[in-house]
Give the backbone structure.
Amino acid sequence: ATEAIGDLVKLLNDSPDQSVVAESATALGAIAARKNNAEAEPVVTALLGRYAKVNDAPAVRDALVGAMADVADARFVPVFLKGLGAESASLRLACARGLGNVAPLPANAGATQVAVTDALIGQIAGEPDRGVRLALVAALAKHGPSKAALKAIYDRTNPNTEADEAVRKRAWDSLIELLKVSDKAIQLTWIGQIEADAAATAKLIDLLLAIEPDAGKSDQWTPADVAALSERLADAMLRANRPAEAGQRYEPAYQKLRAAKSDRAQALAVKYLQALVAADQQAASVGVLKDRLAIAKPAEAGAMIDCLVQRLRALIGNNDATGATAALAWINEVRKQLPEESKTASWADTLNKLADQAKAAIPGATSKPE
């Protein structure tokens, strides 16, 4: 390999044929990309030396920068920054790729790091080529979760800003990966920002699903913090009409609060019940009702009962036998598990009326009370 590098360097420097020079540059980049820094040193020197010859054809310049991007030595950064705004899309692509490949920069390269991040952000905003935008997003993500970089990447997830679906997906995937390794404060800031956008519930769920597992292993997150994170995830799933998944997230949080006799147990129980009812989980929903009605305040108990009653009315409302049969089974489950509570005047009357409506929608059903 050393002999091959020497031969290629000679062709790179001495060949009068520009196509040979370009091919030599490409080959050197491919070889040096697989070498350690010391072994790649002759290639770095040769590429920089040839690049300094300003009279090369555009194809040679493109090949040189492409080879530099493969080798990914930090000394090439000025070349990449200069070429990032070139007219040639292929050259801009190589420079974007090169800036991504040199990451992470040395810890003492603070000014260079700022220059790279600023250049990538500035270029992506007006870059017309979708392939280059993909490379810019990838490069920006490799340089870490600075505040400006995170915002620039998130902007690329917006269809009003980024027309290309592939770029939007790359940006979102990159943002998720960056936030997964960010500090808790940064994660909470972005959770709050995305949570505030009513149209971004699906994104919020993706983000919370990505952060939740590692949060449970991190010293930055207390058990209470993780429980609150899971509750936010369940809330988002409930808003996104994913009640079964929401119920799975609410259940352990509810049990912990219940065991601790926390004042928050009742509020969470209401949301847990909403998820169970929306998912048509009859026995579990009535179980939560049974667990809470005995100790809930009247207004809280009324809210829980109303949640179930609304679902029963929806099942019966279309005069559909299948829905009515499910509603009737649910009513019977309530009477079975809550014999005393279901006899209170107002609720008993509601249950009886709903049962009669359900039976009326079921062919051959009797209106005789159960």
Summary: The two ends are 88 Å apart (CA to CA). Residues 270 and 304 are 6 Å apart (CA to CA).
